[in-house]
Amino acid sequence: MAANTQEPDVELGVQQSDLDSLPCVVESVSHAQRQQSDKLTQHQSISHGLKIHLQEEIVQLLEEDFQLSTDITDLHKKLQRDQRIHDEYSNKVIHHKTQVLELEKTNPIQLALAKQEKLLDQLQAEKAELLSQLSSKKSIDETRNDKVMRLKEEVESLRGNKRQLEKQIEEKETLIQEENKHQGSLLQDISVLKKRNHAQLLRLRNQVKEAQIRNHQWHEEANQMEQQIAHLQQLIADHEA
């Protein structure tokens, strides 16, 4: 009978102990849940910040890529415009040279000079013939003397015309040489401009390639971060569930 009366007391003692430790267990569990919730909140904040940062970086890269594409398009247009100007100027130079050659062939001054030279040669031949005839004669015919004087005056006049024509031709040749020098300088400037534009185009193309490579790397990193964020969000969702 003594053993039977002691068993209920033992059971009551165990139950009372469990009741006394229950608040501590609840507090411990609550504290652990709060810590875990704080960590999850922190992870969510970090994930959100990383996502915003990646989005800003992607937007910046897209803007840089668009700007580089715009610069290349503008440069292509400028090169095409410069090439068109160069072609037009080259055609003008060729046309001008053709006109100069035709002018040299059909220039009235050249034709007049040739005619004057021919006439001068003829008069000089006549003069030589007359002088030869006069030298063989002792008596000088007054009429022939007047003719010789007239021929001399005509010869001097023709020589003056010839000198004037030669001076005009020399001036025109000087102008043509100056124009050719000017055209050569312009062609050289155009060549330098084409080389400089070509170098700028190559540099921009290299920049675009570097930007595209960097953009590709950023996209890969962004995808990795997106996967990590999705994984964290999945963990959070699983924990909340």
From TrEMBL:
Keyword Coiled coil belongs to the record: yes
Top-level taxon in the UniProt lineage: Eukaryota
Alphabetically ordered keywords of this record: Coiled coil
Coiled coil stretches, renumbered: 109-235
The name this protein goes by in its record: Putative coiled-coil domain-containing protein
Record lineage: Eukaryota, Metazoa, Echinodermata, Eleutherozoa, Echinozoa
